[in-house]
Each structure stands twice: as C-alpha cells, then as structure tokens.
Amino acid sequence: MDSISQNTPSNHVDTARLGDRLMGMAQIGATPNGGVNRQALSAEDAAARLKMMEWAAVYGFSVTTDEIGNLYVRRVGTDPNAAPIMTGSHLDSQPTGGKFDGAYGVVGGFEALAAIHESGIQTKRPIEVVAWTNEEGSRFQPGCAGSAIFSGKDRIEDHLDIKDWDGVTVREALKAIFATAPDMPYRAAGGTVDGYIEAHIEQGPVLEAEAKTIGVVTGIQGATRFVVEIVGEEAHAGTAPLKLRKDALKSACTIVGALEELMADPTDTVRFTVGRFDVMPGSPNTVPGRVQFTIDFRHPDMDTLKRLGTAIQPTCEANARGCHVSVTQIVDNAPVAFADSVMDIIRAESDTLSLPNRDIASGAGHDAWYMTDLCPTGMIFVPCKGGVSHNEAESATPEDLAAGIRVLANSLTLLANR
Ligand SMILES: [Zn+2]
To answer: Are the CB atoms for 178 and 65 separated by under 8 Å?
Structure first.
C-alpha cells in the first residue's frame, strides 16, 4: 500500500469489525426471531449507549449527552473554533424491528470515525457521531424527538410529559437513563453544524434489484398523518332497524373505500396507509358508536401532497352516512431535498471506490429531515435483502454495509477539511 492509500480513511474501514459491532449491538434487545426490540430510553437503550461509550474510550473520543438524551461521540479537529461535521442515526427500534434500521448509521458512523482516526488524518473540523433519541416513535409518540429538538423545530417541554403504554413519561425515562451514566458530561442540544450525513439501509427494494451498492439519497418525500374520528350512535344489535342506525364502522368502511379511490395512482407514487383502526365500544352485540382511524399519506411532490391532503376532509364528510366526522392532521412534514454539495461528494467518492451507485429518493422519514434546516445534509443508502425493514427478518450483507461506511468515511473527511 502506498502512502496515499494508507492515508485514505476508507482503507481503514474493517468489514469484520463493523459486522462484529453490529451483531454485538443487535444482542441488546435481541428477539427470539432474530430481530431487535430496543425501545427509546429503555434499559436496552441504556445498555446500547454504554456500549458506544466503551468503544469510544478505546480511541480517546469524548462522549457527551444533552437534555433529550442524544449521545455524541466526538473526535476533535485542529481548529478549536470550527463547527463540527456530524453523522449518525438512532439506536431505538420498532418492537419487532431488525438489526440494521438506525443501528447501522450509529455503529457504521463510529466505524467511519475509527477509520479516519486510524488513517492518521487530523481534520480541521471535529467529527461527531450522534445517536438521536427516539427516532421510531413507538414507545413515545411522536418520533424523531432528539433530532427535532436539536434542530429547534420542537421544544423539549412538549416532549417531557408524553407517556408510554405503562404511563411512564419521557421525563422519568430520561432520568433513569441519565442515572446509568452519571458521569457523562452534558452539553445543550443544538448549535452550529457544518454538515450532516446519515447512513441507513434503504428499507426498499430498488438498490438490490438494480445491483447498486450505494444510493445517493436526493431527499425525503413529504409525510403527513391524520386522525379521523367518526361518531354515530350506539344501539342494540338485535333490535335497532338498519335504516335507523348511525353505524360508525359502516361509515368508516365507506370512507376508507372513498379515500382509496381518491389516492388511486397509476404511477404508484402515492403512499396511503390506514394503519390503526379502533372500533368502540367493541362489543359484538352493540352497533359501533365511534371509530377512530389513522391515515399516513406521503408523496415526494409538494403540490400533490397539498392537493390530495386537502381533499381528505371533504371526502370523509361526503361519505359519512349520517355520522359525524372530524379530521385532525397531526403530522405535516414537507418534502426536503438534500444539498447538491453533499450529494456530489457522496457520488464522487462512490465512483472513486468503483462502487455502483444511483440517485434515490427516500420514502421513509429519517432524522436527516430535521438537519436540512441547519446545514448541508445528505444520506447514504445501502441495499437490504428484499427491501424488508421494520421487520425481524431485516438483513444486509457485511460487504454492502462496509461499502457504505467507506464512502461515509471519505465523505466526512472531505467535509471536515472544508
Ligand atoms: Zn431508521
């Protein structure tokens, strides 16, 4: 190896070490079916953070945390006043999640930092690996709490009293997690950041199908969420004539059918999901008096997102069948485009490493969505088997995972020397 290649961080990315660390992380909260259940701010989350601290200590990287529990691993730069370059993702998972969603961006980010360190390069800017708190939003809703608070879009006060299914608040869970590492230095969330790149498995089938190793992510599609409530009238299933009923469930079924038609899209770009449906009182011999369901609706194009989004309420009302309908929007995330400057670097580094790559839009939301307000932001996708994610069967090859981190390590180094 000549001196130039010795100095290239990607040459120090260790496929086996990365794989070992990912599998080590996956043991924390491991499920019997080979997946991971690591809820935000749980004992498993605490153990995952302690593991990051252990790894960081070996390299002399500092570890700090902030008021929402985001964890930062930092390698210093030569300019003490320079704003950092950040990389990372999340360590929490869905209840029946996989080994790679989130963990790849954090553990892989750490592998990139280790590789840069071992290359001997001193970057001008510090580089930080961050594990954002509660990205998934499965224990505490909404998700992306850590990155939202860091970006200034959300206030911590609005998250602290949110409760999980056992009535435990974010405030209490944070207190417990801070107690597991009482000596960890504190920093405030937020501040100036000079660039952010998040590595993630694609969570879709495109890269694998086209045999591309690297996805240069162009942006994140817009995502909205609504809660629809239909109020009818409870009645006796045996005695109330059908004609006189105000059956909230039958109304809901008609509404969902009408929404399905509204969202019909021959190009299959619209993402429309009714993921939760609650029927009340939920008794076999009572006509349902109330139904609540959720709508998750996404599209990469702002105009379409607005046009179809505004049509949801009138469509619900027109199909209410005598019931009362109310529609509440609870999420309204505009589509974001990532910075050309970051995409150019990721694309060029992939080409230099002879890794087949393509531009790709993200269908899923990520912490990177929040970073676009703060600094030039980008993401690197690697293929996952069959596009399967949010599933215990989630899988990716060690080679693809390492390839993504080789691109990440070189890209971070370039950004950190700008
Ligand atoms: Zn994720």
So the answer is: yes
Hey, what are 274's tokens?
Answer: 């009714």
DSSP character string of 12-55? G--HHHHHHHHHHHHTTTB-TTS-B---TTSHHHHHHHHHHHHH
Is the entire prediction scored with pTM above 0.70? Answer: yes
**In angstroms, what is the span from residue 320 Cα to ligand 1's centroid?**
37
Distance 316 CA to ligand 1 centre (A): 32
CA 130–ligand 1 middle distance (angstroms): 13
Rounded-to-integer distance, Cα 343 and Cα 353, Å: 15
DSSP per residue over 113-155, as a string? HHHHHHHT---SS-EEEEEES-SS-SSSSSS-HHHHHHHTSS-
How far is Cα 394 from Cα 202, in angstroms, rounded to an integer?
Answer: 11
Give me ligand 1 centre to Cα 390, in Å. 9
Per-10-residue mean pLDDT of the chain, 418 residues long, equals 69 98 98 97 98 98 98 97 97 97 98 98 98 96 95 96 96 98 96 98 97 98 96 97 97 98 96 96 98 96 96 98 96 95 98 98 96 98 96 97 98 97
Distance CA 278, CA 195 (A): 43
Angstrom distance (rounded) from CA 275 to CA 225: 11
Amino acid letter, 109 = G
For the segment 283-326, what is each residue's pLDDT rounded down to a tens digit?
Answer: 999 999 999 999 999 999 999 999 999 999 999 999 999 999 99
CB of 176 closer than 8 Å to CB of 47: no
Q: How far is CA 166 from the centre of its chain?
A: 24
Amino acid at residue number 368: A
* Ligand 1 center–CA 73 separation, angstroms: 19
**pLDDT tens-digit series, residues 80-109:** 899 999 999 999 999 999 999 999 999 999
Residues facing residue 382 across a β-bridge:
201
Question: What is the token pair recorded at 166?
Answer: 């056992």
Nearest residue to 195 via CA among 126, 269, 266: 126
Residue type present at position 335: P
C-alpha 132 to ligand 1 mean position (Å): 10
Ligand 1 centroid to 65 CA: how many Å?
20
Q: Provide the sign of the torsion angle of the four alpha carbons 134, 140, 143, 145, taken in this order.
A: negative
Token pair 């995330």 in the structure block, residue:
333
